[in-house]
Protein: Acetylxylan esterase
Organism: Rhizocola hellebori
Amino acid sequence: MPISETDPASYVTAARAPEDFDSFWASTLSFDEPLDARFEPVWARAITVHDVTFNGFGGQPVKAWLAVPTGTTTRLPCVVEFPGYGGGRGLPHQCLLYAAAGYAHLFMDVRGQGSGWRAGDTPDANAGDPQHPGFMTRGVLDPSTYYYRRVIADAVRAVQAARVHPLVDPTRVAVTGISQGGGLTLAVAGLVPDLVAAAPDVPFLCDFRRGCDVAPAGPYPELVRYLAIHRDRAERVFDTLAYFDGVHFAARATSPALFSIALMDESCPPSTGYAAYHAYAGPRELSVYPFNGHEGGEATHDAVRLRFLDDAFSR
C-alpha cells in the first residue's frame, strides 16, 4: 500500500466541480435519438436471459443482458449493473446472481471494452485522438470528446432501457458495479434522481488527481504515463476529468447507498473511495475489507449487498 494511504478514512478531497458541471450533464443527457430498446430471449433454464440492444450516446447501439427468473409474470425490482475496467457483458450465463435472488438484472456492456477479462460486443464509434493504451486518455483534452462522457450517457440510458421492459417495475431500480462499475454507479446515482439504491464497490473514477498521485497499479497510471509525455497538458487534462469525477456525482446523489472499500487496494486507493463516500449526499453505509486488495469483498460482500438490496426494495 502506498505510504500516503496510512489513514485513508480521514481523507477529504480537495477536488471541486466545474461551475458548469450540471449544465454540461443536462446537455449531454438531452438525447435526440429514441431509446429503441429491444429484448430477444437467447437462453432459458431456471433463468431467462434476453439479448438487449438500446441506443446510447449519439444514437449508437449498446448491448446488455437482461436476466429474469423463468416463468415470471409480475413486475420485478431491477438491478442495473456496470462492469469493471476492461470487461464487457460476457456470456449469458455469467451474470445470474441477481436473477437467482428473484430480481430482474440488466448487465450493461461498456463501449470499446470487453477484451481485458470478459468479452464485450459494443464498439466505441468515437475513438478520437492518439491516446495512451487503455481508455483513460481517450479524448481527454476536452470534456465533450472524453471517452467517459459517452460511457456515462450509455449507463443512464441502460437504466431507461431496463425500465421499459414489461417485467421490470420502473419504480424499483437500483444500480451497482465493481471498480469502474462502481464509478459508473456513482455517476448514474448523481444523474438519475429516482433510484431506489446504489451500491458502488471499490469505486474507480473518484478523485482523479489523488488516484494519479498515489495509485501504483491499475488504470490511474495510464494518466500519469500520458502526462509524462505530454508535460504541458496536465491542467487541461485535470480540467476535463473534473466533469467525470465520482466525487462530484456523489455530492448530487440522494438514494441510499452501500459502499465497499478495500484497505490494501493499489488500483483504486482507499482514500479515493473515502473521498466519494464522504461526499455522498444521501444515506450511506460502508463495508471495509482491511486485508483485501482490489478484489474487495467478493462473495462475502455479495451477500451483504443482497441484504442491502432486499431492504431497499422492500421499503
Observations:
- Residues 14-314 form a domain with the Rossmann fold fold (CATH 3.40.50.1820).
- The mean pLDDT is 95.
